[in-house]
Amino acid sequence: MSDYWLADADARVLGPISIEVLKDLAASGKLAEVRAVSRDGRSFAPVANFPEVVAALGPRLPEAVLAEQQAAIQRLRQWLGEIKHQPAHDVFRVPESATPDTFRAAFFALVKRFYPDRLSPEATVELRRACEDVFLALTQKILEVERRRPQVGPPPVGKSEVSQIAWRGGSIDVRLKVKAHDVRYFTWHPEINFRFDSLYVETNEFAVPGTPVNLSIDFEGAAETMSAWGRVIRSDSERPANLPKGLGIKLLDLPESDRSFIRTWIARASSRT
Are residues 119 and 30 located together in one domain of the fold? Predict the structure, then answer.
């Protein structure tokens, strides 16, 4: 079985790999745009010289489209190098003294250009990766702004007596101590409620959608703390005007035993409120 070495536009080399592995990588979209191929890892030739590799890679975009995307990648990489060393207000083009809401609005207006689902289906892996890198860099910039905000004690979370939110690296730790009146976490929001394995936590804290969340929930009358995890699916910058600031959190991989407990607790708490 023959092995091949593949080189992309940046002269990065992958190999040795077989045709079967090459087909799997190409079908999954995990393979960068191949520009040259070698049988020995030393001498490379254009892809067209290897019909079996061309067939394994599948349909190829026209050269004009590839050239246009390569130029876009180079512009993105250059801009990424520039913004990494710029203060957030320069990146988002707002005054340094702008309010957090102004920063957030500028962030969402800018970052939406790099959402993966906004890219053309013809976008190469390299272009998608460049957009993802820019997205992450912009996310880091807005988080720097948020973390500079002065905090006096823990941010307010709903109406709980003991509730805390704390950042740990790129994730958030949320601790809720809920009593009967806090059933609203799971029920009151029209889109983010327990029917959809979600809850809505009122807070002034900001987090980009997709941010991992580690939850610890103390239910009134329960002996043990429930641990769960999820991801932010809604931030206060996206809320309808008539709803309070907060984070919508999607619960992931919640065991059926915990789900059943929460349903029962909601029913009992709702009857007392």
Answer: no
